[in-house]
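Hi support team,

I'm opening this ticket because the web form for multi-chain structure prediction keeps timing out on my end. I have pasted the exact lines I submitted so you can reproduce it. The total is 1040 residues across two entries, so I didn't expect it to be a heavy job. Is there a limit I'm missing, or should I split the entries? Thanks in advance, R.K.
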Amino acid sequence: MKKHSLIVFLAVFFLILFGLYLVLSASSTYSSVKFEDQFQLFNSHLLKALGGLFFLIVFAFIPYEIYKSNTKLFLVIVIFLLIATLVISTQVKGAKRWLDLGIINFQPSDLAKIALMMHLAYLVEMKDELLRDFKLGFIPMIIWIFLTAFLILIQPNISSGLILVVLSFAILYVGGVRLSHLFGSIAIAGTAVASLAMVFTHSRGRIVGFWEGLTSGESANLQVQQAIIGLGSGGMTGVGLGHSSQRNLFLPEAYGDFIFAILGEETGFMGAVLILFVYLIIFVVGLLIAKNAKDKFGQMLGFGIVLSFFLSALINASVASGMVPTTGLPLPFISYGGTSMTILCISFGILINIGLRSQKLKKETEQSEVSAIQI
Amino acid sequence: MNNGRLFSVVVLTFLMFIALIIRLFNIQIVRGDEFSFYAQRQQMNVEMVQPERGLIFDRNDNLLVYNRNDVSFYVDTRMAKKRDRKAIAEKFASFFNKDVSYYENLIKKGSKIVCIEKKVFHERIVELKNLKVNGLFYKDEPTRIYQYENLASHILGYVNTKYSGVDGIESYFDKVLKGEEGRRIILRDAKGETVTINQENQKPATSGKNIQLTIDKEIQAALDEELAKGKNLYKATSFVGIVMDPGNGNILALSVADNFNPNKYNEFSDTVRRNQALTDTYEPGSTFKAVTLASFLDKGVCKESDRVFLENGNYRFKKILIKDSHASSWMDVRGVFSNSSNIGMSKLSQHIENEDLYIYLRGFGLGNYTYINLPSEVRGTLKKPENWTEYSKSSISYGYEISVTPIQMATVYSAIVNGGILYQPTVVKKILNNDGSLYREFEPKEIRRVISEETSERMKKLFFEVVDKGTGKKAKINGINIGGKTGTSRQIVEGSYSREKYNSSFIGFFPVENPKYLVFVLANSPTQHAYYGGDVAAPVFRNISERIINLDPKLELKSELDHDLKLVSVTEFQTSLDSINGKRHLSVIRTKNNIRQTNKWIMPDLRGLSIRDAVFEMTKRKIQYTLKGNGRITEQSIPPGTKLKKGIVCRLSCDQGELFGARLY
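Hello R.K., no limit was hit. The queue was backed up. Here is the completed structure from your submission:
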């Protein structure tokens, strides 16, 4: 429906604008200390936001059906990129996540998410009744999921890997696979992932730290502690736009994964909840678009896109409030960061297109019905 | 699409959403105040603002002590990475002409924060202040500047590294000079750097109050120099000198040779830094005869014309032998005093009761503090009459069995010659608020009348005779009547009186008719040329007094000597004498005395000043200047009295030799 697509577009546009402001505020101190120019990070974010909007509009006009025939190829390319990342990329904070392609430097795991979701959506539509068959329906999908997730998990990037698995299983679940198949593999995968998570010091530290924080009553993680202080000092209405103090290097990477804390500090409980409701609106309207999609591919893909988006927002805010261990998930459309912004915009372009196509298709069918009657 | 399954997923996400809202409510609303407290605690920083320490002036508003705004550079080694350290080292090396490795080692050795350049004169380093490298920062650290270095060092004292006064005025008036710390609340970032300054809750620092001393810079300089010369000539351990206004107890100069440089106080030993005029006692010997004789005269136990048999130099008093250095038979009291006869004084003392003498001695403040406004004064010893032996009164009469400090002797002599009133000595004239208004004035403080005015007059005549024809002849200055008394006492070394170590002193005053200056000179263990007070201390007294006379145009000279040119032309700045009308002109060469401190924003008259003094006046007013030639200032491009504007440049021309028509020799 055209109306749904418009709502999503406007809400996303609002989030991007608000994100621009928030990145400016949150990064100003860091930029001026590090680069002696308080607009350094903001300028870079502005470029990425403009680029993102461009992609969003372009993809909104590309009929999404054309991806159907290419999802497998796309996923295979992404898997090669993931392997390349493991082989050639340099370590940043103990993990190999970034792929430097000369001109662009990005995290292929973000790309993997959309690629895998597309292919799963394609498989759900194609297998149709076969989906309930273990050997012919379930196994091929689970292989793709585990292969992709594994390559991300061993970067190591536990949180992205996990969310990928969760998203994929959600698509399979809503797509209609047998519950026995699903829960069986969840049990197996869960054990595997949990043990893998504990193997890497990087993620073990985070989990152990979070657990210690929960049991001892105070967070062992400085970043989370500072985020909570930021949120808490915001109170009901906040310290005022542009008046954050936590951005003054108290909260590391205040402009990135922890920007929600600055949001909460500057705008208070009211502002934080308002933004969360914008996310909720996009989620609900996005689900309506997915439900009304003209084919199963569109439904599954749209569902995957909005769920991924909303989970990312929820988990990001939960991390900043100290509810879950630190993950690398951004606050969608707001956090500083090029890869996530671009991929998100592309996926929302696709989502909007799904919404637009369903309407056009309905009209076409209506017209054909009318003409049939006339004949 | 399976609607039931979709619904369950949606329900799950809604639950997460609600949990998140509840969590936010808890953090932001329920515990909001708590977290605000934590936030403020880490973001706000109360910083104390250091007040400017008060300035010290001499009695003629010459600035003696001020603060220079220096800057120290530090490196936080935890923040400076290898690249940063290299950048810092290179920049500082080229700026201060030191090795790059010097700075690198300095930073390497430091644990947390290292000071790499201490107290750099701040005008030099604008460039360095703008250098932005991780871990490099600077702090304003003022330096206390003692403008004239060693001048009056024992009065001024010095400040330690924490800017607290340690000795002298700096210590005694530390609280007054220090001012009050201000407070401001600073919003900082996690690195501790200032982000903004909270305008509320600010309390500005109150600058310390300024102190005007009773010291006269020129007299002090004369005293410092003459004592140093004397110390050198007679190879004495030390020399102590005090110049005092006997009429009000104002100390005009006080000096100990050797003195020290308060700017570099740590290069001098404690002994040198000690103000011996207050902290060291000695047995005064013959100078004390003035005190006892004044008591005898005032009590009426003898008069000037009384004749005394002096036993031809050897007098067995009970079981001890008293000797005179110049043996005589009969003499009147005048002769006893001017020839400084111990036998005579001993005999005269037999006529006064122990208690009566004690009352006079206490009356003069002996055995007690003078309460001068300088630290670490001691009070000497004066035994109570019940502890006196049968010899005590006799010994005291010629200055033994009693110990005094130089400041006590100067104070007591002032009382004897000023009409009989004991004043509390002071080195401070006024304390001024920072805006120049008066905070406290130190009026002359009378302690008590000790002897009658008449006794004082009689004593002055006796003192004059000492200089005129007695032991103090070497103190004589033509053109002015001088009075005084010599003293030579043996020092006690390891419990008995030494035959090699003497305290040689002379205490004199002038003009005798109306004493305006009292000069105390004490030589500790002179080893060359002479040891008698009349031979060691009296010439030094004369040199000092001559210079004082030349500095004071108002001093009345004896009228019959007005035309005697050569006797007055002593100092190098001495100029012409007007022999026609009999009045002496003071030097046309002006010293800084003439420039009043009153207005910092008015161009001073610099003509006639030395370059050093002129430059000082200019820097004080922050005037930029160019200099041409050398010698003394002859022209200034900004006329005196002009209101000063920022950035104004004054061209000064200097010339040696001729000046206002007067020739310099």
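A quick check on our side: The longest strand of chain B covers residues 496-510. Let us know if the file doesn't open in your viewer.
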